[in-house]
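Q: What would this complex look like in 3D?
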Amino acid sequence: MTRIINGEIYDPQNGIYGEVRDIYMKDGAITAEDPGPGGQTIDAAGMVVMPGGVDMHCHIAGPKVNVARKMRPEDHRGNMLPRTPITRSGTGGSVPSTFATGYRYAVMGYTTAFDAAVPPLAARHAHEELNDTPMIDKGFFVLMGNNEFIMQRIAAGEKQQVRDFAAWLLQATKAYAIKLVNPGGVELWKFLGNAHSIDDEVTGFGVTPRQIIQSLADASLDLGLPHRVHIHCNNLGVAGNWETTLDTMKALEGRRGHLTHLQFHSYGGEPGGLFHSKTADLVEYVNSHPNLSVDVGQVMFGDTTSMTGDGPLGYLLHQVTGRKWVNVDVENEEGCGIVPIEYKDKSYVHTTQWAIGLEWFLMMQDPWRIALTTDHPNGASFMMYPRIIRLLMDREFRKEMMQKVNQKALAETALPDLDREYSLGEIAIITRAAPARLLGLDHKGHLGVGADADITIYDKDEDKEKMFSSPRYVIKGGEVLVEDGHIREEVFGRTFYVNPSYDPDIEAKIQEYFDKYYTVRFENYPVQLEHYLPRHEVVACSA
Amino acid sequence: MLYEHVVCAFCGCVCDDIDVTVEDGRITQAKNACVLGKAWFLDHGKPTDLPAVRIDGQAASLEEGIDAAASLLARSHYPIIYGLSSTSCEAQRQAVALAEVLGGCIDCCTSVCHGPSGMAVQGVGEPTCTLGEVKNRANLVIYWGSNPAESHPRHMTRYAVTSRGMFTPNGRKDRTVVLVDVRPSPSSRAADIQLTVRPGKDFELLWALRALVQGQKVEESSLADTGVTLEQLVDLAGRMKSCRFGVLFVGQGLTQSRGKHMNLTAAFLLVRDLNRTTKFALMPMRGHGNVTGVDNVLAWQTGYPFGVNFSRGCPRFNPGEFTMVDVLRRGEADAVLSVASDPVASLPNSARRRLADVPVVAIDTHDSETTRIARVVFMAATAGIGVEGTAYRMDNVPLHLSKVLPTPYPSDEEILSRLLARVKEMKP
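A: Here is my prediction, written as structure tokens for the whole assembly.
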């Protein structure tokens, strides 16, 4: 592919909203000039052209995703992808097989996705799956919020060692960012406890979630990570948790931080009781604090699978739903919980969750600090993104959907009063430009010179769900991968990781720790780069 | 030449602290390895003079072998690929791709060992953990239908019983060890308590235990056939409820005896109930070195952990329909590709008889009952000795296998990927 002509361009990063322009590309990147005669041309007259979609928070690779696949044969049956001369076969459902995951993202116009929660000990597994996930560029965030070595160093006041260890762990696992999941709470869950506020003490370690949040936010800042600390707050899903969420935001004290799937963290009420929306209060705080960014974790009605590094949350969902439950505690590091879940439109709770997600989208003033996610597959499959886009762009459709939900719950939210409709430009921001910028990926999410030639071309349609479900063309690295919903070529993208530097003296301390508490030797822990990341790219740190 | 902290891929423990000495092109020492690991390193580290390929018993070139095996498989209507538990994930990935192109079945040793555990997980879920959690926290360790002293000789020392950890600084002294089995075994010596259950009565015992844990009344008479007294069971239930962190390791004594997946369902439910009051985990004692890996590769590529069929172009799963023993026993398979396994020696008679009637292709690191009857035999490098790769420990922890010895043989991965390419040419 050499040029796309006559298209209506939406490239918010470069201030372009709907202008008709031509785009040129060479060697997989956008160029300023037409590379010269010849080459393939797409005439995109009457079509909308955007950068490829970027999913900054999903669960697509690694141990918990795979346990969910094994546990739910009923999720795959009736949702199968046959082999074609170009593509491998696979199974779909809420937790698709790796091949199906890559194909489905691409067919939807997404070209980059990050898995949001990989336990360090299983990093090799996540990379193996990412290598079998075609079409997209990818990477993962590595879990650190319950790491026992880190908690001990924080308790000892060894700030520098926390930073060095975090850098070592990012390098060892070839991860992209630091992720906290229910900081301290998952450690407590290992003896059946949990953290109920950011000032609860983590028994046996003498630290609090607040200290973990602040220490790792500092570490990510000191290391100059392209994506700062990514936080799943304490008390997910619990009535009254909005205060914990607000405390977490305040605890960052101006440090850069991304708070994820905030829909699940915006509940008023008393623990154990029914909850109501506290979106307005949290949005107000985020609006006035430019150091914060969020993604939504929109809930959509239907059957899906909840999978989380938040072990106690998994157990809570099992108790609530009575459905099958997987829990995996990972030595010295993390945990995990998996439960199938069906969100029902007649349910008071599920309607409240659905409405809170939409409130977040419609109340946030700055689209550059909010990303469209479903926390796939927790709130819904990523396959629901086109419908969410329609809900945001089409007020009448939203009203129609509102009639189908639990009216009592709906009336308690601000959703019926919100008239805002997203423009195509704003959709381009929350689905590509903003997530790429928040991830610190300079060459993604825009169509400026030097950017990756990842481009999605849509036929215009009044039905925005239809428009965003089936792009006319999907181009990645300058190659047409998808045309009219059909995959034309299978490619395997790159894996992004960071390489922050650290004081090598930390290694002796880590080794001593491994000898005592791990069942894997220190020497065998780091992921072998060439073997497990055959197509890789280091994203530079700014420190 | 000394290679330190090498990973042993023989059994599901996948110990990664073996110091391997190589002298004059053979492995002479495997320090830290158990008796099984030593034998594995030393036997596989011996030079052999077996030809890399045999067709109908005659030495042939690799090219000829690939041609013969590919045409045999491509011609068949319902081939099955089986085994894969003693090879790398890299080879397993190629095997799944080959099964897909052939439109046949692919099954691994899981279906004859812990397949019932996998089916129980699909029913009720699985509270589990990694082995380091056991080392650091467990103060009650139960082995049920398993004899680790012989099957996983370092399981108790390296991970579960005598090892010292964060909340178990005194190792063995900090733990109570219980063995439940149909007879005393060499593992009994390591146990504080042994319960001898009558063969085939595991389900009844687990269900009664579950009732006791829930605080329900159990009549002595209902235990009459189990071989265990109510007093013994009340004692065990009490220990399970009052421990700080308990773990139940389950072996094939539970998965392959009467009740099969129902036994495991009962065990998982028991452990799930225990989590209302204390932390408790269950872990299957996976046997072969990378049987856990093949479950994982199959799951991420197809959605299903074993017994997968591609006849309709997309993966389908049905234990009992697409599993090796059943496909053979019903006389359905018309070609078999055995990889890193010995089905002739290990499958029940009714299934192995069929192996004599259909063309078999075998890929293995050594001669076996299966290579003896196979039409085409490939000798392959051993993953973890002659070739690098990945293996998953019984707790799903992935480890990198290294190469410590040169080998005249190609890897399973290479043989399978060449077979795949050739079959694709014949059957696009």
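A: To summarize the key features: The two ends of chain B are 47 Å apart (CA to CA). DSSP finds 17 helices and 20 strands in chain B.
Q: Very helpful, thank you.
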